[in-house]
């Protein structure tokens, strides 16, 4: 019986890893969405910062720590507020992840200028990219030949 119980954590670990390995799956929010793809050249890339809620997390943690220590003396309440603020800010930062993103100015092969904001840097200025818009935006660097070939459909450019 104990031998069977030894394999339970192993099986749970493998199941967890299998779930993480299937990262090409679509989110449920992607169903019933309009999907389009187009080729573009990267005109400009700028780093942007997303709003962070760490300050609010620290405030909530401080109030919680203060209230949980309210039966002690004044020093206990201050210490509770400080520890609560630290852990509230830390947990908020962990769940938020990176607050850095990138704004791309793209020139589509049909001549349109498009701006998109994404969370990961996928390409640099002058690169050819394929842009997939389906509820969220994904940019992937591709060979320049594909952009040149796609641009042949638009002789006015």
What report would you give on this structure?
The chain has two domains: 77 residues, OB fold (Dihydrolipoamide Acetyltransferase, E2P); 43 residues. Helix 2 packs antiparallel against helix 3. With 157 residues, it is of the alpha+beta class. The relative contact order is 0.18. It has a five-stranded antiparallel sheet with strand order 3-2-1-4-5, covered by helices on one side.
Spell out the blueprint of helices and strands.
Layout: H1 2-21, E1 36-49, H2 54-68, H3 74-96, E2 100-108, E3 113-118, E4 128-134, E5 136-142, H4 144-151
Antiparallel strand pairs: 1-2, 1-4, 2-3, 4-5
Helix pairs in contact: 2-3
Protein name: Glycine zipper 2TM domain-containing protein
Keywords: Signal
Signal peptide: 1-21
List keywords for this structure.
2 domains, 5 strands, 5-stranded antiparallel beta sheet, 42% helix, 4 helices, alpha+beta, OB fold (Dihydrolipoamide Acetyltransferase, E2P), 157 residues, 27% strand
Q: In terms of per-residue confidence, which ranges show pLDDT below 50 for 5 or more consecutive residues? A: none
Mean pLDDT: 81
DSSP strand (E) fraction? 25-35%
**Rg measurement, Å:** 24 Å
| CATH architecture call of the largest domain | Beta Barrel
Helix content: 40-55%
Shape: elongated
The SS-based structural class is: alpha+beta
- Helix run count: 4
Number of strands: 5
Q: Characterize the largest beta sheet: strand count, sense, and whether it forms a barrel.
A: 5 strands, antiparallel
**CATH C-level of the largest domain:** Mainly Beta
What is the rounded distance between the termini? 73 Å
């Amino acid at each position: 019986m104990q031998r069977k119980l030894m394999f339970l954590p192993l099986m749970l670990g493998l199941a967890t890893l299998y779930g993480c390995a299937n990262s090409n799956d679509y989110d449920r929010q992607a169903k019933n969405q309009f999907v389009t793809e187009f080729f573009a050249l990267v005109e400009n890339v700028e780093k942007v910062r997303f709003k962070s809620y760490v300050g609010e997390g620290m405030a909530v943690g401080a109030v919680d720590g203060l209230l949980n220590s309210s039966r002690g003396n004044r020093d206990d309440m201050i210490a509770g507020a400080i520890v609560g603020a630290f852990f509230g800010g830390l947990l908020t930062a962990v769940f938020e992840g990176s607050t850095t993103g990138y704004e791309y100015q793209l020139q589509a092969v049909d001549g349109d200028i498009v701006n998109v904001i994404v969370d990961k840097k996928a390409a640099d200025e002058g690169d050819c990219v394929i842009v997939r818009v389906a509820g969220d935006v994904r940019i992937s660097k591709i060979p320049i030949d594909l952009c040149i070939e796609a641009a042949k459909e638009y002789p006015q450019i």
